[in-house]
TrEMBL record:
The keyword Transmembrane helix is annotated on this UniProt entry: no
GO molecular function: rRNA (guanine-N7-)-methyltransferase activity
GO cellular component, one term: cytosol
Transmembrane regions listed in the UniProt entry: none
Family membership noted in the UniProt record: Belongs to the methyltransferase superfamily. RNA methyltransferase RsmG family.
Protein name: Ribosomal RNA small subunit methyltransferase G
UniProt-annotated binding residues for S-adenosyl-L-methionine: 79, 84, 130-131, 149
CDD domains: AdoMet_MTases
EC number(s) given by UniProt: 2.1.1.-
Length: 240
């Protein structure tokens, strides 16, 4: 997917990308590749693949959730890695207030430098485990949207993400194939943590680049205080 095709495919979903934003994506790509030589950020390095498998894929969240609102949306990205999906979303929707949590200090350093390079404001970075972060009163149930992109099974992700989501907010889980089985296994976790599955959307990335699934989970009640459990426990003993 070249740059022009990327812009056209995004515009098909009613989202425009202006010249400045196109330049930001180009700079994002160059910065990602430069840093990837020093640390392992992504196995996907060809430009056309980065644009479809990282940039387009990240923006697909906005096809099914309305970020076009007057009040700035507070979004927390859990385990953002190289900045996906939150940084592409921030480029296209500059009114977003982004918080990124990642357990690897080197990735946080990269993301901080990336945000400065791209000229992004209202982006905060925290080197922390999601389990610890979700128990911090400053951040717990503080976000309109919480995103996670294929970093763990849904039963685990739900415990890491739903505690951060305010009642009335949305947890957006961005997954590959097999999400329905994961959701079935995560029924207990989602219900226990105050969530309810609103919708699951299945679609294909352009140019035969694979199936993607987006699970939209509404936060309908407060998360019990004992969740999330201590670091590592959700992964070792999921709520299933």
């Amino acid at each position: 997917m070249n740059t022009q095709t990327f812009v056209e495919r995004i515009e098909q979903h009613g989202i425009s990308i202006n010249q400045k934003q196109q330049e930001q994506f180009a700079l994002y790509f160059r910065t990602l590749i430069e840093w990837n030589e020093k640390m392992n950020l992504t196995a996907i390095t060809e430009k056309e693949h980065v644009y479809v498998k990282h940039f387009f894929d990240s923006l697909s969240a906005s096809f099914y959730y309305n970020f076009h609102v007057d009040t700035p949306v507070r979004l927390c990205d859990v385990g953002a890695g190289a900045g996906f999906p939150s940084i592409p979303l921030k480029i296209v929707f500059p009114n977003l207030k982004i918080t990124i949590v990642d357990s690897l200090k080197k990735r946080i350093t990269f993301l901080h430098e990336l945000a400065e390079t791209l000229g992004l404001d209202n982006v905060e970075f925290y080197h922390d485990r999601a389990e610890t972060f979700g128990n911090n009163a400053k951040f717990r149930e503080a976000y309109d949207v919480v995103t996670a992109r294929a970093v763990a099974r849904m039963s685990v992700l739900s415990e890491l993400c739903l505690p951060l989501c305010r009642v009335g907010g949305t947890f957006i889980a961005m997954k590959g194939p097999g999400v329905q089985e994961e959701l079935n296994d995560a029924t207990v976790a989602i219900n226990t943590l105050g969530g309810e599955v609103n919708n699951v959307v299945t679609f294909q990335l352009p140019d035969g680049n694979g199936e993607r699934n987006i699970a939209l989970i509404d936060k309908i009640k407060k998360t019990p205080k004992k969740y999330p459990r201590n670091p590592g426990v959700p992964n070792k003993s999921p709520l299933e």
